[in-house]
Amino acid sequence: MRKGIAVSPGVAVGTAYCIHEIFVNPDTKRLEDREITAELAQYEYARDKTTEDLRALQKKVEAQVGHEQAAIFAVHESILRDAPFTKKVRDWIVNERMTAQAALHQLMAEYTQLFSRTKDEYLRDRLNDIRDVVVRISAHLSDVLRPETHALPGPLIVVADELLPSHVVALGDADVHGIVTQAGSQTSHAAIIARSRGIPAVSGVAGILRQVKTGDTIIVDGREGHVIVNPDAEAKSAYHKLEREFFNLKDQLAENRDRPAVTADGVEIQLLANINGVADAHTAGRMGATGIGLFRTEYLYLTHSDVPDEEEQLEAYRKVIDAAPGREVVIRTLDIGGDKTMVYLGRNFREANPFMGWRSIRLSFEHPEFFNTQIRAVLRAASYAKRKGGKVKLLFPMITTLEELRRLRSIVRKACKQLADDGKPHVKPPVGMMLEVPAAAVTIRDMLGSCDFVSVGSNDLVQYLMAADRDNPKVSHLCQPLAPAVLRVLSDVIRACNEANRPITVCGEMAGQPRAFVLLLGMGLRNFSMSAAFIPTIKDLTGHISIAQAEALARRAMEFSTIVQVKRYVDEQLSRLAPNLTVLDTA
Predict the structure, then answer these.
(1) Following DSSP, what letter does each residue of 450-468 receive, concatenated?
(2) pTM of the full predicted structure?
(3) CATH T-level assignment (fold) for domain 259-579
(4) Confidence band (pLDDT; 50, 70, 90) for 325?
(5) What are the residues whose beta carbons fall under 8 Å from the beta carbon of 23, sequence distance 6 or more?
(6) In the annotation, is 189 catalytic?
(7) Is 240 part of the annotated catalytic residue set?
(8) Least packed by Cβ within 10 Å: which of 50, 144, 310, 387?
């Protein structure tokens, strides 16, 4: 048994599928004599197609972002055309009878070993560039990131260093029942993806890829944070029973999707969904969400083959609006940097503290034309939603100062004027700020006059308040939403927004956690946005508690001075109010 961080509740038993850093399934076959010429031709074709991709991407990025940012693709093309690079691959195909995929895999391993010996940061960055080029060639050789999952028995447990957006797209509709990652925390990509799909998951299991191989039987206990590789018959039987109980309870709760979320004393609560794209929007409707409280648009960029232009973005937003419950969508502008990077937006700029550096709205300000493209697309999408009887709100991430809010409102006004001059239908939507930075929390009363609504990004707010990187397993234990400091800050922010009659929503992961939900409800919060899979659980919990009970619970919890005291008290109260639901929260 291995212990990790419990990030998505539930139990799953299945077959391990290991995703390694670049190639999901590098080919080990040896070529026959008659196949070598065809394999060389296939490699040359892939190189030519990659060259076309890089040149088109360079042109597009230069037009939308700038010449300096586009130059990285010229560097990538020079790597692609590097004589030693190509000679190695050709020699391995001819002399070692490797497939082109296997040769690329070996090439990457060789470069990785070579570069690992250097402390020069410039050379380490070049390894990232080589990796990008290799992955692009690989994509043209075959669907290398699409696993042959049909060949594996039973449901799959994905095991990876970290689960990236590209992996999720590649896995498609594979029968994934659990996720285990070496890196990450309760708010990592893997955790958010797992919760959005209602999949049990454990992160921060150091070295798991060295201890498990594809085809092994593996158990994931997403409540306790346990991972068991090749369990004995007794353990397997016991966990199968827990797995059935978990899914039976989820199925029962899902039956409440058509009922409103109403407290025991009749107060209606808004349960919204966080989404990454149109598939999530459809899921939100099936789970009983009343709207989309957070559309993370960065996944549109991260999974796009190049830079989505205005029309491509508009089409993506329209599809989400059509799929969204009530056609109500809060669209957040690009939140990139920190743990999410794109090669043409500053990846080569090395920062000591990327989460507190050049990211999110700060990065958008640096690329005004690129940023303006997204604003225009959102304004046009708002017009589309209005025609369809829905509503779009525009949310800006990582606001720190009042000056930033005022600057953003000016940018929106200018985009409206541009669209009017272009004769394109548009609507100026409500403009909101995402509260993640402690400075904004402290000065929230000054901010409220310049925004129409507030969305609390609790994931980042918690890590900033606790000075602990949420993706660093060494300190992630400090990233606790029930920490007294976090609760006191949130209570003050909610009170300020309610007094100013500004709608406020918590859209971080704590919104979907039963313990945190009852405390936020008691603080006066009435709008919650969460992974769609948690909506049935929270809706059921809502019906078990009155506002007066929640207020009393929150007041008492705020008197404690340690996380352990808060957790113990809330657990006691929840086990009394809704005992079945405690199995649907992480430990």
Answers:
(1) G-SEEEE-HHHHHHHHHT-
(2) 0.74
(3) TIM Barrel (3.20.20)
(4) very high
(5) 101, 104, 105, 138, 144
(6) yes
(7) no
(8) 387
